[in-house]
Amino acid sequence: MSRVGKKPIIVPDKVKAELKGLELNVQGPKGKLMLSLHPRMKVQISDKEILVNRPTDIRTDRALHGLTRNLIANMVNGVVNGFQKDLIIEGVGFKAQVKGKELSLALGYTHPIDYPIPEGIEIKCATPTQISILGIDKQKVGQAAADIRRFHKPEPYKGKGIRYSDEVVRRKQGKAVG
Q1: Residues 120, 78, 124, CA angle at the centre, nearest 5°?
Q2: Number of H helices, E strands in the chain
Q3: CA pair distance 141, 147, nearest whole angstrom
């Protein structure tokens, strides 16, 4: 039995969960999210908790069991608390700023990079070298952070580039001179 899948999801008072066929809608103070469930997974909603059950112990059902439970738990957490990813920019002249619905990045290239901010995501720049990505959908927040990081990944010799705030860049020694 899946240890993750069998744990009940506690639903706070301010969250409303509703199941219509194979669509689960979760609404809370920060917004509303929808998830299309796999037809083999059975979801039961009671007053204060959500339970996910699987029909058999075959490999795909076991995998879907834990996945479905975690997706629903992330939805409940997202509409209550939201998610945040922080990025740090390192390098001389590297900076970021929000211009309307775009994030403008100067990363040492000949041109600035304009990243359109996705729907449901909020991006803040506390300083020109710090980017905070906020939203209620964990997948969208993580994807936006990965897309921004991909513009200039941190390199191991000088550490220049965009990295996650909790990421450690292993530095390499440059070539030795004579």
Answers
A1: 50
A2: 2, 13
A3: 10
Contact 167, 156 (CB under 8 A): no
- Give pLDDT tens digits for 123-166: 999 999 999 999 999 999 999 999 999 999 999 999 899 999 99
Domain count, the chain: 2
Q: What are the φ/ψ torsions at residue 69 (nearest 5 degrees)?
A: -60, -45
Is 15:27 a contact under the CB 8 Å cutoff?
A: yes
Q: Which domain holds residue 43?
A: 9-80
Q: How far apart are CA 113 and CA 151, in angstroms?
A: 8
Nearest to 131 by CA among 155, 119, 120, 147: 147
